[in-house]
C-alpha cells in the first residue's frame, strides 16, 4: 500500500472513531490544538518532535499524519533526516526501521 493510501485510510478510520466517540474526539482535538498553538516552539518544530515520537513509538499512522503536516509547512528532506537520526539514536534498531518508513513516506508525499 502506498503512503497516500495509508494516509487516506488513517483519516477514514479516524472519522469512523470520531463518530463513535464524539466527545472524546473533540476533547483530544482541543488538546492537540492547544499543544500546537501554545508555547514558545513554532508549529514546524512541534511537528518534528511529533514525527520523532511517532517513529520511536512505532506508530505508522502517526508517521503519515505528521509527515503530511511537515510537507505542508515546507520542511526539507534534510530537516526531516535530522529528526530521523535523533529518533534512531533514542529508539535504537526498531526506530531505524520506522525511520526508513518515514523517509519513504516523506519522499512520496512531497512529490
Summarize the structure.
The protein is mainly alpha-helical and 111 residues long. Helices cover 85% and strands 0% of the residues. The protein has helices at residues 3-20, 22-37, 43-56, 60-72, 77-109.
Written account of the structure:
With 111 residues, the protein is mainly alpha-helical. The chain has a single domain (3-109), classed as AhpD-like. The protein is 85% helix and 0% strand. The chain has five helices and no strands. Helix 1 (3-20) crosses helix 2 (22-37). The two termini are 17 Å apart. The model has no long low-confidence stretch (mean pLDDT 94).
Question: CATH H level: which superfamily?
Answer: AhpD-like
Instruction: Name the overall outline.
Output: globular
* pLDDT < 50 runs, ≥5 residues: none
On the 0-100 scale, what is the average pLDDT? 94
Number of strands: 0
Summed up, the helix count is 5
**Which bin fits the share of residues in helices?**
over 70%
Sketch the major β-sheet. none
Domain unit count: 1
Could you name the CATH topology?
AhpD-like
Rg, Å, rounded: 14 Å
SSE run? HHHHH
Determine the structural class based on helices, strands and strand pairing.
Answer: mainly alpha
For the record, the CATH architecture stands as: Up-down Bundle
CA(first)-CA(last) distance: 17 Å
Amino acid at each position: 500500500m502506498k503512503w497516500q493510501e495509508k494516509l487516506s485510510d488513517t483519516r477514514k478510520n479516524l472519522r469512523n472513531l470520531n463518530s463513535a466517540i464524539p466527545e472524546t474526539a473533540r476533547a483530544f482535538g482541543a488538546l492537540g490544538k492547544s499543544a500546537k498553538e501554545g508555547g514558545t516552539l513554532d508549529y514546524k518544530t512541534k511537528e518534528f518532535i511529533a514525527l520523532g515520537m511517532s517513529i520511536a513509538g512505532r506508530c505508522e499512522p502517526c508517521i503519515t499524519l505528521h509527515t503530511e503536516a511537515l510537507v505542508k509547512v515546507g520542511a526539507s528532506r534534510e530537516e526531516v533526516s535530522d529528526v530521523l537520526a535523533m529518533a534512531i539514536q533514542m529508539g535504537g534498531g526498531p526506530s531505524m526501521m520506522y525511520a526508513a518508513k518515514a523517509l519513504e513516506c516523506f519522499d512520496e508525499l512531497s512529490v
